[in-house]
Specification:
- This protein has one domain: NE0471 N-terminal domain-like (2-Layer Sandwich).
- The protein is 13% helix and 30% strand.
- Strands 1-2-3 form a 3-stranded antiparallel sheet.
- A hairpin with a 4-residue loop joins strand 2 and strand 3.
- The radius of gyration is 12 Å and the shape is globular.
- The termini are far apart.
Length: 91
């Protein structure tokens, strides 16, 4: 089985709650990645928050805003799925 991301919720601290199709929820911390390579575009918190989405069944940032899965920044769903479970956060 391949894990599929069905929903993402970005947070102001550069973390993202990631919801999988089997009910698993993880929290991915991007704070260490935003100063590296292509992810530098996400340093702007508005870009991080506004472009965070699900593309190709995984967490992605649609930087250009055209829903082109080949031009987005994304994280391998297997990498995300290996993170420990978190309790769902209610805002």
């Amino acid at each position: 089985m391949f894990p599929k991301v069905v929903q993402v919720i970005p947070m102001k601290n550069y973390s993202v709650y990631v919801y999988f199709d089997d009910g698993k929820i993880v929290c991915y911390d991007m704070s260490r990645m935003i100063d590296k390579g292509v992810f530098c575009a996400l340093r702007d918190i508005d870009v991080f928050m506004d472009t965070c989405t699900v593309l190709n069944d995984t967490l992605a940032w649609d930087i250009k805003g055209n829903r082109d899965h080949t031009a987005c920044l994304d994280i391998d769903p297997d990498t995300l799925y290996e993170l420990p479970y978190v309790k769902e956060q209610i805002a």
